[in-house]
Amino acid sequence: VQLQASGGGLVQAGGSLRLSCVASGRTFSMYVMGWFRQAPGKEREFVGGISWSEYSTVYADSVKGRFTISRDNARNTVYLQMNSLKAEDTAVYYCAARTSGSYLYTTRDKYDYWGQGTQVTVSS
Fold first, then answer.
1. CB atoms within 10 A of CB 124
2. What is the dihedral of CA 26, 27, 31, 37, to 10 degrees?
3. In Å, how far from its chain's centre is CA 99?
4. In this predicted structure, what is the pLDDT of residue 55?
5. Distance from chain centroid for Cα 16
6. Sign (positive/negative) of CA torsion 120, 83, 17, 49?
7. What value does the mean pLDDT of the chain take?
8. What is the pLDDT of residues 59-108, one digit of tens each?
9. Going by DSSP bridges, is the β-strand pair 118-123/9-12 parallel, antiparallel, or unpaired?
10. Helix, strand, coil percentages in the chain from 3-state DSSP, rounded to 5
């Protein structure tokens, strides 16, 4: 499975960005997909995820109400819509896939494949 994330960039505080992650593989519709981020000097942290069953979502408290995850199985793509961006959202954002089971884990050790990351910089 290969994951390709895109859509990062420089945006002013209060602005929006939409990240995309395209996955290879014939069974994308059965992958649990997650978004993580890593700021300089910090651990990689869970941002949110979406299951393949019932499309349920989970978000970190820090982004709840501002970020939305969705998926388009026909395009093998998962999206992260980020609104009301803050300077503290600045990080490299990674998409990740878990290819077994349907539980939506929030820890990075539960994900099998990772994209290369896309930089998001929010200026204050």
1. 9
2. 0
3. 16
4. 81
5. 15
6. positive
7. 95
8. 999 999 999 999 999 999 999 999 999 999 999 999 999 999 889 999 99
9. parallel
10. 10, 50, 45
Q: 60 — alpha (psi -120 to 50), left (phi > 0) or beta? A: beta
Secondary structure (H, E, C), 33-80: EEEEEECCCCCCEEEEEECCCCCCEEECCCCCCCEEEEEEHHHCEEEE
Which residue's entry shows tokens 């000097």? 41
Output the six-digit token pair for 56: 């349920």
User: Residue 102 corresponds to which tokens in the numbers above?
Assistant: 């349907």
With 0-12 CB in 10 A as exposed, 13-18 as middle and 19+ as buried, what is 11?
middle
